[in-house]
Description:
Elements: H1 2-30, H2 35-47, H3 49-60, H4 64-89, E1 92-93, H5 96-120, E2 122-123, H6 125-145, H7 163-195, H8 199-224, H9 232-253, E3 256-257, H10 262-283, E4 289-290, H11 292-310
Antiparallel strand pairs: 1-4, 2-3
Helix pairs in contact: 1-2, 1-7, 1-8, 3-4, 3-7, 3-9, 4-8, 4-9, 4-10, 4-11, 5-6, 5-9, 5-10, 6-9, 7-8, 10-11
Amino acid sequence: MEFLAIIFGLILLIKGGEWLMKAAVSLSLSMRVPKIVIGMTVVSFATSAPELIVSLQSSLSGHSDLALGNVIGSNIANLAFVLAITILISPITVTQSFYKTDWPMMILATLLFIGFLNSDQGLEQWEGACLFILLIVFLVYLILFQKQAVYDEAPEDDELLPLQKTISYFFLGAVGLWLGSETLVKGAISLANSLGVSERIISITVVSIGTSIPELSASIIAVINKEKAISIGNLIGSNIFNLMAVMGVTALVNPIPVGDLNMLSNDIWWMLGISLMILPLVFLPRKKQLGRLDGLILLILYVCFLWPLLKGL
């Protein structure tokens, strides 16, 4: 029953995020906002909405480990699971934006996040404010000075909808995200209690893998349809937003204490290690390309990370 609640919650979150993005893009186009700006702000925030709502809901209901585990697990899964499966199917070429903006900013955000967590075993409101302000500065820098680096972030589904339809999508998206987060969080808590494991383990395994399914399916569909080159920047951008927008906003609304200290001794270091690992993989064995061997290495690392946790389920 708990698994059904989690699956139902994930479906509502995914659809709610899609509906919200359609409405947000349509509204931005009607206001004649440049496409690059839409991609780096409106679309990025809309696609992070499910993680944001789940983390907010978890934190406000006193389940901070679900909020933290959701983001830490998603960041690990984005690189060691979604990216790994994608490049196992088809190698991808790495663009200049990876070296100039994407990877350095992801590492900076990760180190800042880890520093904040270790300093007081949680995220305080001022620390959330720092993360969010740094994100705004980063976005302004990209839009003003690195436009070439963000062309891939521009929305593909840029349909201008009638006002009535835009409002309907906003309403459906908001309801879907709220109801989905309620169902998912309650299902995850119930599953943790019934299995006798920590909320950290449920959030880092079941919840984070579930919230990474949309990125995985989108990447696989793009490979099959031989669409434009899949940018590693999309997944790295998702990691940046998870840390600085999702965690930043959640901590601003409500401080997030660390309940299970294994997050500090194990999980965050896996997140940092896999994030750092991406750079040498880009150069070895082929320069500026991620191939099937790299995908296999990342997938093995993901299994090594998950295996001890899954044994506890």
